[in-house]
Structure formats: structure tokens, C-alpha cells
Amino acid sequence: MKMWSRMLALVVLTVMALVLAACGGGGSSSGGSAGGSGSGPVILEIGSKGEELAFDKTELKVAAGQTVTLRFKNNSAVQQHNWILIKGGDTEAAAIANAGLTAGPAANYLPEDKSNIIAESPLANGNETVEVTFTAPAPGTYLYICTVPGHYPLMQGKLVVN
Ligand SMILES: [Cu+2]
């Protein structure tokens, strides 16, 4: 009886050690990239809210100067969306969205003058995921919008840079 429980304990300990070793191995490699957040890009994930003209997150946070990869998943089956980070407020956002109307899809619904655009994802078709990598600007609050016709001002959110 005592022998059995000792053997059982040994087996349990061995299994636990193996599991910990396996986890430790995997953890250290993924922990390495997470720990090196100063070197690798920070990944932000956002999506569109089903068939609504809305992002599923209306606030994102990041540190100034950080390299950011924003991954945007278009959760609509039929609509196109993009994710555009802009400089300025509602006036600048409206100007970009209005210019996007005439620019059309080939231009990602964006004006030629990109002076108020910090980052732009490609146009995402239904159920498509797109990415954009950029350097987080100076501390402040920035608007991100979708410039597909009719989506702004409904489709927008804020990026808070600290
Ligand atoms: Cu949109």
C-alpha cells in the first residue's frame, strides 16, 4: 500500500516535471518575444462589429514610439472596411472621409494628400484580415476611422498614446 502510493507519487511527479518542462520550453520562446516588447512590434487586434458600421473596440492604447502592428479583421460578410489612423479631430477626419468618397476603392477610399494620415490598413473585404505596421506617434489621443463611403462618422474609435 505504502509502496503503491510512493510509486504513484513518483509517476505523478515525473509527469508533472515533463509537463512543466514542455510548458517551460514553449513559454520561454513565446515569453521571449513578449518580454522583448521593446524590440518587436506590439500587436493590436481589432475587428468590425458584425454587419454594423462599427469597430468592436472603440479605444486602443499604446506607448509613444512603439512599433505597432495593427491587425484588423473585417467581420462583415459583405461590406468592405479599412482602419485609418488620423492626425487631428473631427474636421480632419470628415475631410479625409469626404475625399475618400471620390477617391474610390482603388485608392483605399483615401485622398492623395496623406499629411493627416498616420497609418492606413489596406481595404479589407468581407471576412478578410489586414495588417498595418506603424510607429506610435507622440502622446495624445488620435482618431481611427473607416473611410468606406457612409461608414464615417459611425465607424470610429480612439487610439490613446501614452
Ligand atoms: Cu467601414
How much of the residues is beta strand, in percent?
25-35%
Present as ligands are: copper (II) ion
Distance between the termini: 62 Å
Low-confidence stretches: 12-37
Main β-sheet description: 5 strands, mixed
Number of helices: 2
Structural class: alpha/beta
The neighbouring-strand order within the major sheet is 2-8-7-4-5
The ordered string of helix (H) and strand (E) elements is HEEEEHEEEE
The shape is globular
Please name the fourth-level CATH homologous superfamily of the largest domain: Cupredoxins -  blue copper proteins
Q: Judging by the overall fold, what is the CATH architecture of the largest domain?
A: Sandwich
Output the CATH topology of the largest domain.
Immunoglobulin-like
Q: What's the overall average pLDDT, rounded?
A: 85
Number of strand segments? 8
Tell me, what is the CATH class of the largest domain? Mainly Beta
Verbal overview:
This protein has 162 residues and is α/β, with parallel strands linked by helices. The protein folds into two domains: 1-35; 42-161, Immunoglobulin-like (Sandwich). It is 30% helix and 27% strand. The chain contains two helices and eight strands. The relative contact order is 0.19. Residues 12-37 have low confidence and may be disordered. Bound molecules: copper (II) ion (CU). Residues 53, 81, 146, 148, 151, 155 line the site of copper (II) ion (CU).
